[in-house]
Structures are given as structure tokens and as C-alpha cells.
Amino acid sequence: MKLYDWKNGIDKNELNDIVNSLNNEGLIVFPTETVYGIGTDALNEHAVKKIYEAKGRPSDNPLIVHVSDMNMLLKCVKNISDIEQKLIDNFMPGPFTLILEKSEIIPYAVTANLNTVAIRMPSNEIANKIIKSFGKPIAAPSANISGKPSGTRIDDIKEELQNKVDFFIDGGNTDIGLESTVVKVIKNIPTILRPGAITPEDIERIAGCVNIDKHVMNEVLSNEIVESPGMKHKHYSPKTKCILIDIKDDSRRIQTINKYLDEDVCVIGKSKDKTKIKTDKFIDMGDNLAEISKNIFTLLRKADSLNCNLIIIESVEPEGIGLAIMNRLIRTCGYNVIR
Ligand code: TXA
Ligand code: MG
What we know:
Blueprint: E1 2-5, H1 12-23, E2 28-30, E3 37-41, H2 45-55, E4 64-66, H3 70-76, E5 77-78, H4 82-91, E6 96-102, H5 108-111, E7 116-120, H6 125-134, E8 138-139, H7 154-161, E9 167-170, E10 181-186, E11 189-194, H8 200-207, E12 211-212, E13 241-245, H9 250-259, E14 265-269, E15 282-284, H10 289-305, E16 310-314, H11 322-332, E17 337-338
Parallel strand pairs: 1-9, 2-9, 4-7, 6-10, 11-12, 13-16, 13-17, 14-15, 14-16
Antiparallel strand pairs: 2-3, 3-8, 4-8, 5-6, 6-7, 10-11
The structure holds threonylcarbamoyladenylate and magnesium ion.
Threonylcarbamoyladenylate binds next to strand 6, strand 7 and strand 11.
């Protein structure tokens, strides 16, 4: 495994190495504006299977195909409707993934046998440059072992992935910190399957309507069919048990949290609650949503490393990107929420 530091710019020779590696079924960890991805040649079935193996990812959970431009996108899909085109025009490149009908060049290994493919055009300069230089789409899930919090900086994921990939490309901390918004147009209505930095309000403004799939905030029951296989699987979980405290009233929230503090407990909470929560194991998540989204996966890993019996996490308002934060935190806590 090699680590390339591109925090201060892309190195041309190293870029050649990366492209060579991708041409030889290599796996690379690379930054995007959302989270780091583990990427490989999306058109090579054998390379794609190596990603599932590296992550320990269930084989029924499809990967996102990353493209650098519209030409490349058009080769991967067919039958784009007017509303889908509108979404593409407004949100790509950016933290946005659209589920479209796949073309023949996309192997079923990428889509977990579905006839649809998830397409994303990252705006991150490094991600874009790699895809463009490679000249083909790159299949990439988030860079983490399946079930663990996603990686938003190299230091968080170096250890768990170092024997599993060929290159790490360090582009610094990712800007957004949560994975892209995943949307599928169902009966002409853009439906959010996974919330992200492109919010329901953003989509409604462009499309005139938007639906939020019920499994964005609710657990999938064993007999239910889901629009997105990822909804069924365990996600974003530290090894320590976590509980989400979703209580708006300040004094009741603080009281509820303080009741837990006799045990060996760590708290990930808002800055404004810091002095009121009586523990020396308080991890400050900040107060504004952009800051929280940027840091939350690193903070979850940090809390886990304290080896406490329990991690208590404060909720945020599910508004704007807050919906995406809550979608992740509810899963982190295995739907264990105190209201
Ligand atoms: O921001 C992101 O989207 C990051 C960066 C690396 O681009 N990638 C990412 O990939 O989060 P991953 O594999 O962790 O999440 C992909 C999600 C999963 O929930 C998967 O089930 C869903 O997209 N998905 C992929 N293909 C799909 C399809 N054809 N239909 C429905 N859902 C799909
Ligand atoms: Mg993931």
C-alpha cells in the first residue's frame, strides 16, 4: 500500500501510478466532497468484486458509479426522463446520486443484479481528475469496513483499510462529511432514498415536488421491500453501544443525560450543553449543522476509542442537512432513541 499526499495539489507522476493501478484492477482510497471512497474500474467485474471483499460488503448492496462529465454519464445509463435531466443539470457535479436505468456496459456486479445504476459526478477536484484521467467510470462505496462509520479523513481509515487497498490519496478532511443524497424518480416524483447535503427543499425548488422514502427515518421491518438495498443493512456503527437522545426541552434533555452518567459513559453533544452535562468524557459536536455533519463520523470513531460502556448522542433538528445527520445517527444507535 502506498500513500500519496495531495493536500497541496495533484502530483502528475503519482496520478499516472493511480491510473496504471486502476487499469490493473487496483483499489484506491480517494477523497470526494462528501466522504472518502474506495474506487476501482466500474466496467471490470473482477475489480468490482474485490471492493465487496475489501469492505466485507453484503453482495446485494449495489455501488455508486462515479463519472467525470456528461459524456461519461450518458454511456452508463439509458432513458433519462425530463425530470431526471433537470436534476442532473442542477445538482451535478455535486453531492448528489441519481438512480437511473443502466446501460449494457455497467456490469451486474456493480448494481447487485438490479437494472438500475446509481450515478454520481463528484465536484471534488481530485476525484474529478482521477476519473477524467482514467477515462472510465469508477465504482466506489464509502471508504470504511461495512457497518462502520464512513471515512472523512485518511487518519480515521488508514488502519482498517491498509491491507485491503493499493493506494491511499490524502486530500485532507472532506468538505461535507456525509454521503451524497441518493434520489430515484418514482412515478415522476423525485424520491429521497438517502438524505445528504442536497436537501428536500433544494430538490423541491427544482422539481416542484419531492418525496422522502419512509425508511429514511424508520427501521426496515423484516417483511418490507425497500427501494434501496442499503436501507436494510447495519450502518455507521461504532462497536460501543449508542443511544440517541432526541429531547427538545433543554432541562429534560440535560436531566435525562445526567441520569446515565454514573456508568462509564461518553457523551457526544452540542457545545451549548457542554457545561451542563457532568462528565469529563464530553465530545463537543459543535452547534451548527454544517460543522456537525463535517465532523460526526470522526467524533463517532473518537468516542468508540474511549472504550466506554455506552455512547450517548444528542439529536439535531431534522431540517436542511440535519435530516441527513439524523438519518445517520438513528442507524448509529440501532434505532435506540429516547424521546
Ligand atoms: O457520497 C457518496 O455517495 C459516497 C462517495 C464515495 O461518493 N459513496 C457512498 O457509497 O456513500 P455507498 O456504497 O456507501 O452507498 C451507496 C448507497 C447504498 O445505500 C446503496 O444501497 C445505494 O446507494 N444504491 C446504489 N445503487 C443503487 C440502486 N441501483 N438502487 C437503489 N439504491 C442504490
Ligand atoms: Mg457506505
